[in-house]
């Protein structure tokens, strides 16, 4: 083929997949469509003709454009980005993307809820799936994790049972997007291995403020293999540079009603505005010999490795800097699997991981309808690939040569095995011996010590939120015997005070001592389990609502907006309606939205602008509610000039996150610090008495 031919093909591809601006509508085969409004009929009012290939071409696709949604992780958002490795990883692994510091590896990330379907809300109490596809030069590698470091069950054979229990109940398809129902807690109460995971799901980790501020974990133990064929066990972590943040429960409920797409919108907006979220990809790296000395089994996915035993080693960073062009083609069709590894990364015998190695690929065959799902652009590797596979539904690869088998002689035995090539994948030669058994190892028998570790490691307000969450969820369970069993078999073995609080809230009795033989853990608390261990370094992409009415001080509005821009934060001016307001000197102030349409729950802080309109503000129920709700949700706010009087009007006590001043610049530094802290937890008890 000549250079001219190649140029023509390239031109055709560019034209075929270019921006649609300026193009004309065609069929799926490129035939231009002159009339897209009317089907072909026999006469003006006659029957539609079978020969109308334009109609058939359109309907055939429409009838099939919905594929089965994922059983779990159906609700998601995706984004593109890149990964950059840090120096020094070659002592752990030969994986090129982790050792080559001169190249950026393209990635695609999908973040999802677990329980709800595609139409459910974002800010539900749930685990968040957090999966990364690395398009490396050695093939695609998928790191398929969650925002919680452990899981509910120890063995993959229980995975269908767990999912069936947590999903909407079969008799009425209720509830969607939440676990507060009988079958979930029935399963929990009868499977005590779930105890540790439920302390995480009942915690603030399960109601994140946004997806830019969640941690990620590989959950399972994997192996890293270096060029000398030396192996280390590894637990993967990804830590947000934005810090970890959460919502309070009342806020979560309101967000789901007022903006069910809040998480997806926030991530999309941040990327569009150039505030690209970043994470550090790290790993806890240890040997088999070290793991054998610990009082828990690293193959048990309901256990984490406390960082007091093994600190996290940073391996590199990844950045999300491009939104998807089409949700279906990318986010919906992306196919992740923990079985997708590259040379330098291998598996452990974690029984939940072992089942996932089969289950994910089997799911893609069902959802995407073809063994050729890896030829879909979002799944396709960026490195050369050569298989001898032919045919199958939706096969796009065109192979040359006669042989579709190996070895062969008709095509010179190509493609052939990569014998002796250090870039080829070879499984780690782990010694295996023993009888074939269906058994749970004794080292998996401790179901409570790490649940207690997690609970005891948290701050008092975090512990209280867990108590409140258990009480709320179990109050939705109709069968008293299930509620009682959760208290007697789960909670009392985690913490007696936790069990007593929940029992009191439900009008039940709690045992006065544990009901199981408890393991005495060597590590009692771990400082990296609290959200406060991951503070925000700045207020990048934090949103500030600026409340104005006619008569507002335009100079104050300008000062707030200028300051926010300098901090890469977002200040939006909200008025009673979408029309501009008149400042006290007659100047028009442009507004970004209505106070009633852009609720306080979608902002991180509030500034109430001064002016000659205090009485107007006091009479405005929406504006009053805005400040009250901000106070109740423990967020910082500024009352400028005459608006300080709102403290008395609304019955609010001054605290460290309320700022009153005539000059915004005077409090800007402290206001920023309060926004970085995100919440003033010391306000929480007082806020409960304030109606909103």
UniProtKB/TrEMBL annotation:
Kindly list the GO molecular function terms attached to this UniProt entry: catalase activity; heme binding; metal ion binding
User: Per the UniProt record, which EC number(s) apply here?
Assistant: 1.11.1.6
Cite a single Pfam family from the UniProt record: Catalase-rel
- Residues at the catalytic site: 73, 146
Domain Catalase core: from-to ranges: 26-414
* GO terms for biological process, alphabetical: hydrogen peroxide catabolic process; response to oxidative stress
Q: According to its UniProt record, which protein family does this protein belong to? A: Belongs to the catalase family. HPII subfamily.
Protein name listed in UniProt: Catalase
């Amino acid at each position: 083929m000549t250079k001219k031919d190649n140029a023509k093909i390239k031109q055709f591809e560019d034209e075929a997949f270019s921006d649609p601006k300026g193009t004309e509508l065609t069929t799926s085969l490129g035939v231009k469509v002159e009339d897209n409004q009317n089907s072909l009929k026999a006469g003006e009012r006659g029957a539609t003709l079978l020969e109308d290939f334009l109609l058939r071409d359109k309907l055939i696709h429409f009838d099939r454009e919905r594929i089965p949604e994922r059983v779990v992780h159906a609700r998601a958002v995706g984004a593109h980005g890149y990964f950059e490795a840090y120096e020094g990883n070659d002592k752990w692994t030969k994986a090129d993307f982790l050792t080559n510091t001169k190249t950026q590896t393209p990635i695609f990330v999908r973040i999802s809820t677990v329980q709800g379907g595609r139409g459910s809300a974002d800010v539900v109490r749930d685990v968040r799936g957090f999966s990364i596809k690395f398009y490396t030069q050695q093939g695609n590698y998928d790191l398929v994790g969650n925002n919680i470091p452990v899981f509910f069950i120890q063995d993959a054979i229980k995975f269908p049972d767990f999912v069936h229990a947590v999903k909407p109940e079969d008799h009425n398809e209720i509830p969607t997007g939440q676990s507060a129902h009988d079958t979930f807690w029935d399963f929990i109460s009868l499977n005590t291995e779930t105890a540790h995971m439920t302390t995480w799901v009942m915690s603030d980790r399960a109601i994140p403020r946004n997806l830019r501020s969640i941690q990620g974990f590989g959950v399972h133990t994997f192996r890293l293999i270096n060029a000398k064929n030396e192996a280390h066990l590894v637990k993967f972590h990804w830590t947000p540079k934005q810090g970890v943040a959460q919502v309070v429960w009342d806020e979560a409920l309101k967000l789901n009603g007022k903006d069910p797409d809040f998480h997806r919108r926030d991530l999309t907006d941040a990327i569009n505005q150039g505030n690209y979220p970043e994470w550090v990809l790290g790993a806890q790296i240890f040997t088999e010999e070290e793991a054998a000395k610990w009082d828990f089994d690293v193959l048990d996915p309901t256990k984490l490795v406390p960082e007091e035993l093994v600190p996290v080693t940073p391996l590199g960073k990844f950045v999300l800097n491009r939104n998807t062009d089409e949700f279906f083609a990318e986010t919906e069709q992306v196919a992740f699997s923990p079985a997708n590894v590259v040379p330098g990364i291998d598996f452990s015998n974690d029984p939940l991981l072992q089942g996932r190695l089969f289950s994910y690929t089997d799911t893609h065959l069902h959802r995407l309808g073809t063994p050729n799902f890896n030829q879909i652009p979002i799944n396709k590797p960026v490195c050369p690939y050569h298989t001898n596979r032919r045919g199958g539904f939706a096969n796009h690869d065109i192979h040359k040569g006669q042989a579709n088998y190996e070895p062969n002689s008709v095509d010179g035995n190509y493609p052939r095995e990569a014998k002796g090539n250090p870039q080829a994948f070879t499984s780690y030669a782990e010694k295996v011996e023993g009888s074939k058994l269906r058994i749970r190892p004794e080292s998996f028998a401790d179901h409570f010590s790490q649940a207690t570790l997690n609970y005891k490691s948290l701050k008092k307000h975090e512990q209280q939120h867990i108590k409140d969450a258990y009480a709320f969820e179990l109050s939705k369970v109709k069968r008293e015997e299930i509620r009682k069993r959760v208290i007697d078999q789960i909670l009392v073995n985690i913490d007696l005070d936790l069990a007593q609080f929940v029992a009191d809230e439900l009008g039940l009795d709690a045992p006065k001592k544990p009901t199981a033989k408890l393991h005495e853990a060597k590590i009692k608390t771990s400082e990296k389990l609290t959200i406060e261990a991951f503070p925000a370094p700045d207020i990048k992409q934090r949103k500030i609502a600026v409340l104005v009415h006619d008569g507002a001080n335009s100079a104050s509005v300008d000062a707030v907006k200028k300051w926010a821009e300098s901090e890469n934060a977002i200040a939006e001016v909200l008025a009673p309606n979408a029309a501009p307001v008149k400042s006290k000197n007659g100047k028009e102030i442009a507004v970004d939205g209505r106070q009633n349409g852009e609720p306080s729950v979608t902002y991180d802080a509030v500034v109430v602008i001064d002016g000659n309109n205090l009485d107007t503000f006091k009479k405005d129920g929406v504006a009053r509610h805005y400040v009250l709700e901000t106070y109740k949700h423990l967020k910082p706010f500024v009352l400028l000039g005459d608006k300080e009087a709102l403290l008395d009007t609304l019955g609010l006590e001054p605290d460290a996150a309320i700022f009153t001043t005539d000059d915004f610049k005077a409090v800007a530094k402290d206001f920023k610090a309060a926004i970085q802290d995100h919440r003033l937890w010391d306000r929480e008890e007082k806020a409960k008495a304030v109606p909103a």
